[in-house]
Amino acid sequence: MSATYSELRAQLATLTTEAFRPELAEIDQLPTAEIAALMNGEDATVPTAVARQLPAIAAAIDATAERMARGGRLIYMGAGTAGRLGVLDASECPPTFNTDPSEVVGLIAGGPSAMVKAVEGAEDSRELAAEDLTSLGVTADDTVVGISASGRTPYAIGAVEHARARGALTIGLSCNEDSALAAAAEHGIEVVPGPELLTGSTRLKAGTAQKLVLNMISTITMIRLGKTYGNLMVDVRASNEKLQARSRRIVALATGAPDEQIETALAAADGEVKNAILMILADIDAPTAAERLKVSQGHLRAALHATGPTP
């Protein structure tokens, strides 16, 4: 047994996410319905664990929004499940918030093929993380989020170390206390949902916890950037029939306008929901709406205040 293997085994034994639960040692003997009930009960504890980190999450989001408002990117980096969750969150931002794919980026150790098949040794390389960020040309305006359930994954730690050295904002999201990842980042977020139902299977509660936090980071950052009007997704990109129908419904909910007026406004605004809403509520044409949104940096409520009282 190598010294490195022995050290890693000892390290894993100290992690909450790797802890063995003797009370579940006979879980394979239980009826399916009882196992499902156990899993459901375990999952119900995750939001409470997230709630304990809300102040740290909010601080990280405000800092992220500040960087993105001046042109920075949000970059998620992780290995395995953590990396896949980052890629998933990033890939959902363009259709939801009309962001360019380059604005919110998900990188997984080992590259795109690692989304469906493990890439041997990729997560163990700090150097690989530095290479991935170098290829992106990370700058001081960017935010890099290292994601790791254990909080010890070299790829995630290497990502925040490299980014921080270049002045970027760094966030370390882990599911263990006193993690190396949180210590390496400017903003450490340690959501600790406890030992897993299956020992060490961090795609379960830890994965759910990370998904919830990533939802918060991207969604609330986009709210701060003016991508919503109230709780309406006014920057939605209508790339399919369902989203086209949703676009029309959003304009209707925001304005109360009849269908014919909504169709006319959307056509004049080239399908841009935010522009169509401003046109209707402020009674202005498409070029004027576009200019006022440009001046307000895309914030619809601010653009409406500039033209009169907000409905």
Describe this structure in a few short sentences.
With 311 residues, this protein is α/β, with parallel strands linked by helices. It is built from 14 helices and 5 strands. A 5-stranded parallel sheet has the order 2-1-3-4-5, with helices on both faces.
Verbal overview:
- This protein has 311 residues and is an alpha/beta fold.
- The protein is 52% helix and 8% strand.
- The chain is built from 14 helices and five strands.
- Strands 2-1-3-4-5 form a five-stranded parallel beta sheet, sandwiched between helices.
- It is globular.
- The model has no long low-confidence stretch (mean pLDDT 92).
List the helices and strands and how they pair.
Blueprint: H1 3-12, H2 32-43, H3 46-51, H4 54-69, E1 74-78, H5 80-97, E2 104-108, H6 126-136, E3 143-148, H7 154-165, E4 169-174, H8 180-184, E5 187-190, H9 205-224, H10 241-255, H11 259-268, H12 273-282, H13 286-295, H14 300-307
Parallel strand pairs: 1-2, 1-3, 3-4, 4-5
Helix pairs in contact: 4-9, 5-9, 6-7, 10-12, 11-12, 12-13, 12-14, 13-14
- SS-based structural class? alpha/beta
Number of helices: 14
Describe the global form: globular
In N-to-C order, the SSE pattern is HHHHEHEHEHEHEHHHHHH
InterPro entries: Etherase_MurQ, Glucokinase_regulatory_CS, MURQ/GCKR, SIS_dom, SIS_dom_sf
EC number: 4.2.1.126
Pathway: Amino-sugar metabolism; N-acetylmuramate degradation
Keywords: Carbohydrate metabolism, Lyase
